[in-house]
């Protein structure tokens, strides 16, 4: 799943001395020295992944360099927009979480169906922040975090953020529903492995379904393919083991607080939505942090594409952001390969939209492609 990183010789540290004397048996000593040098190089490659700019390789990692979360407190951000009943189901599942050290904030993206009022009626446990306009998903979540820093600031705990004292932030969509043990398992996975920056759970479609939505995402930079692992499969235990994945969706994503801060939040160029969560995971990997699938952390998500079909108003943004994601994180040779493969992969998708009568969605996707082609290189 993970591609071999590009190693830049200019960044490699000098080879350590092997300590072999060059004495009478020069040939033997030289042979031993070569073996030792190769072993030292192999060890260095295993322990330090060196990335180049715009690379999808992992960044350098030094054992012990990354602090484990220790404050034991999590901020929960629920993004809301015109799904009142779904929002209430989501918040009820949050209230049932066994993990008690949490603060909950609902960011309402200018809903007009009473979502904000319904959330406020649940009591002081749920904080609600209203926006007077729909900011989209990336900007909405970033604004929610800014509001959280101001309104829920508390003294920093040992090893935690000095301003807010949170280990991590859990992002949920308003149509998500979490199992009571979700946060216990996800938070434990984050704490147990300092190399992990983001945790996702086992995601099903709408509760109480046992049809898998995703157990993480696999991104093929050479072919341009993005695949939700397990999508549409009946859960028969085939994904019962934890695994590192390339990325995951933000409908149920736990992110280490300091990693989110270092990344500067979600990239708002992906507004109104689409692939901003994958971009966050890939940028975290540049810092040396990985995305982990924790199988015991269970989440359900209604707003999945399984059975929903294309929505024209989203297709333009999805097409634009898909190309932006690949452009931002692929290496030059991968971009060339993707350019060759893209027509092959896109043709059946576009043909299928046309044959099923989704002409508006087809036109929207083509406009999204044009948006990227017309954009200056630094804005892609």
Please provide a written account of the structure.
The chain is an alpha/beta fold. It has helices spanning 26-47, 84-95, 115-120, 137-151, 182-192, 257-263, 276-286, 312-329, 332-355, 359-374, and strands at 74-80, 102-108, 126-130, 168-173, 176-178, 196-204, 212-214, 217-220, 225-228, 243-245, 252-256, 290-301. Helix 8 packs parallel to helix 10. The strands form two sheets. Strands 1, 2, 3, 4, 5, 6, 7, 10, 11 and 12 form a ten-stranded mixed beta sheet that branches. The protein has a two-stranded antiparallel ribbon with strand order 8-9. It is built from ten helices and twelve strands. The protein is globular.
Task: Please specify the SSE layout and strand pairing.
Elements: H1 26-47, E1 74-80, H2 84-95, E2 102-108, H3 115-120, E3 126-130, H4 137-151, E4 168-173, E5 176-178, H5 182-192, E6 196-204, E7 212-214, E8 217-220, E9 225-228, E10 243-245, E11 252-256, H6 257-263, H7 276-286, E12 290-301, H8 312-329, H9 332-355, H10 359-374
Parallel strand pairs: 1-2, 1-4, 2-3, 6-12
Antiparallel strand pairs: 4-11, 5-12, 6-7, 6-11, 8-9, 10-12
Annotation field: number of helices: 10
CATH architecture type of the largest domain: Alpha-Beta Complex
The level-1 CATH class of the largest domain: Alpha Beta
Strand element count = 12
Mean pLDDT figure: 79
Calculate the terminal CA-CA distance, rounded to whole Å: 25 Å
Total discrete domains: 3
- What is Rg? 23 Å
Strand count, sense and barrel status of the largest sheet are: 10 strands, mixed
| Structural class computed from helices and strand pairing | alpha/beta
Q: In one word, what is the shape?
A: globular
CATH topology of the largest domain: Spore Coat Polysaccharide Biosynthesis Protein SpsA, Chain A
């Amino acid at each position: 799943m993970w591609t071999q990183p590009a190693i830049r010789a200019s960044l490699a540290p000098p080879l350590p001395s092997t300590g072999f004397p060059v004495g009478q048996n020069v040939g033997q000593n030289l042979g031993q020295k070569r073996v030792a040098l190769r072993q030292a190089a192999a060890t260095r490659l295993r322990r330090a992944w060196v990335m180049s700019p715009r690379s999808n390789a992992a960044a350098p990692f030094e054992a012990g360099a990354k602090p484990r979360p220790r404050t034991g407190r999590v901020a929960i951000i629920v993004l809301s927009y015109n799904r009142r009943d779904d929002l209430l189901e989501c918040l009820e599942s949050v209230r049932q979480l066994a993990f008690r050290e949490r603060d909950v904030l609902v960011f309402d993206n200018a809903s007009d169906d009473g979502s904000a009022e319904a959330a406020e009626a649940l009591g002081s446990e749920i904080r609600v922040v209203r926006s007077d306009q729909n900011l989209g998903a990336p900007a909405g979540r970033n604004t929610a975090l800014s509001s959280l820093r101001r309104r829920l600031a508390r003294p920093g705990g040992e090893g935690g953020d000095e301003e807010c004292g949170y280990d991590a932030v859990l992002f949920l969509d308003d149509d998500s529903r979490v199992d009571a043990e979700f946060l216990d398992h996800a938070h434990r996975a984050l704490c147990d492995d300092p190399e992990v920056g983001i945790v996702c759970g086992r995601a099903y479609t709408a509760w109480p379904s046992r049809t898998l939505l995703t157990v993480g995402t696999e991104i093929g930079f050479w072919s341009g393919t993005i695949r939700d692992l397990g999508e549409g499969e009946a859960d028969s235990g085939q994904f019962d083991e934890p695994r590192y994945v390339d990325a995951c969706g933000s409908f149920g994503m736990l992110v280490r607080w300091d990693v989110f801060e270092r990344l500067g939040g979600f990239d708002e160029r992906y507004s109104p939505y689409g692939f901003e969560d994958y971009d966050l995971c890939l940028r975290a990997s540049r810092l040396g942090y990985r995305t982990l699938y924790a199988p015991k952390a269970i989440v359900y998500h209604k707003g999945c594409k399984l059975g929903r079909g294309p929505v024209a108003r989203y297709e333009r943004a999805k097409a634009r952001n898909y190309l932006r994601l690949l452009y931002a994180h692929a290496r030059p040779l991968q971009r060339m390969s993707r350019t060759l493969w893209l027509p092959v992969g896109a043709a059946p998708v576009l043909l299928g939209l046309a044959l099923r009568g989704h002409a508006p969605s087809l036109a929207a996707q083509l406009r999204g492609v044009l948006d990227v082609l017309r954009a200056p290189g630094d804005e892609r």
